[in-house]
Structures are given as C-alpha cells and as structure tokens.
Request: fold
Amino acid sequence: MSHHHHHHHPIGAGKSSISVALFRLSEIESGCITLDGVDLSKIGLSDVRGREKGLYIIPQDPVLFSGSIRECLDPFRMCSDDDIFEAISLVRIGDPQNRGPSVLDDFVDEGGRNFSLGERQLLCLARAILAKPKVLILDEATASVDTETDALMQRMIRDHFLDATIITIAHRLKTIMDYDVILVMDEGRAKEFGSPMELLENVDGAFSSLVDSTGKESARLLRNLALAKNSVHAPTL
Reply:
C-alpha cells in the first residue's frame, strides 16, 4: 500500500526545488538550466526575477501585500485602471459585473487574509495576466483549490498565456495531459521526459503507471485527454 500512497502524494519528489532553482534562490551547484536556449546562470538575477523579462510564479499560497486591489495587482503602476479592471473581471473577484471599477479600491489585508486561498490565487493570476510574462510557473496547490476556481484558472491559463512557456509543478494529472512535454521526477532525479503520448505508449513507464494507479475509469479519461490534444496537431493528409 505504501507504494501506492507514494504515487498519489509525491512529496519530496523535488517539486519545490525546481522553482527554487529557476529563481536561483540557491545557486545551482551542478548542471545548468537553460530556458529558450538562454543559460540562466549567465544572466543577472534581476533579469530572471525582473518584471520585464517575465519569469512569473503563481505559488501554492500566494502572499499579497496590503493595500487596494489596484496596488496589489499593479505595484509598479504600469497599467491603466481599465487594464486592471479587465484582469479582475476575468478572474471574477469582488463582483466586478455589478460593482464596476470601484472593486479596485477594495482593501486587501496583510497577506491577503480577507480573501480565501482560491481568491488569493485568482488575484495572483490576475497579476500575472497584467504582467504578460514569457514564462509562467504554476505551483499547483496541494491543498487544492475548489473545483470551480481550478477550472477557471485552467481556462485562463490556456486562453491568456498563449505565447508564454508554462511550467506547472503538478499535483493533478488532469492538469498536464494536454501539455507538450512532461518531466517525471523521482526523488529529485529526472526519470522520464517526453510528450504525454510518448510517455503513455511506454506501458511499463513511470508516467503510465501513475495514470493507471488512478483507477480504470479515471485512467481512461486521462488517456483520452492526451489523445485529444494529439489529434488537434496531427497533420491532415
């Protein structure tokens, strides 16, 4: 049984070490990270974390500074109220339909405590929509947000970050079945790397067994998601 348990909660598989490494919070000891062909160790930290170059993370438990929603979403005052209102409307925080732009004056307590975890993640997503990053890193919450919030986030990510590279540290297989490539980590090491279809074709592989361990019905749905993605890009003869 413990083996199965390990599958569903791959704690310590090195998930957070990926985002730590990407932001070079600890300098990389060996190996290198390249992003779009650029070696991250060769560029300055401000480039990696800077707003303009756009490496952006949506963490499991977003911390928000206190202030108005406007200040939280646009701390550098780079956006117009219209843009900020549009982002807030997309993520549906504070009933923008009925209240209009006055929503932007709503106060966010220290750490965002007057908002639920789901709302904080959506505020963080709105901030990312405004920042238009080149790379978006999503750390999927272990304490998963409610289904509705999750569905909204997934839809936004697929609609609003079309020209960004999205790196998801996933807890749910469903999230990543239509991704271009999947890296399977085990105890901090890379175990498998390839498209969902490639990994699923290897029936004895780690990814295949993860999918199968979710149960027959679920595994079938997951495999269909990967197939659907694959057929969209298949060349038509």
Summary: Residues 175-237 form one domain.
